[in-house]
Amino acid sequence: MKGDVNMPDKQNSAENMEESCPYCSGKHKTRDEKEYKDLMNRLKRIEGQVRGVEGMLENDAYCTDVLVQVSAITSALNSFNKALLANHMRTCVADNIRQGNDEVIDELVTTLQKLMK
Fold this sequence. Notes:
mainly alpha; 70% helix; disordered N terminus
């Protein structure tokens, strides 16, 4: 499946992600094609926005113009987080609770606390 982080066609294999990412929990999630494409499209748009701000700085854009674009990036990242969190709750959290793993609730609370800093 396209969204499987263990697929060899991914640029970073699961082993490389665990070795190179000090922020990763080591857990993995296989996403369906639609979710994967939606999240990737959002990230690509955000990446384009960031490159746009980089270009603005290179071209000596006025401060408020840059600030407005950075605010748009922040909003886009918040929308990305909302979509990812909603799907996480519908799938990972719900599945774990159904299987009797209530520890996932503590994990979710910790995650929400980090997001709300």
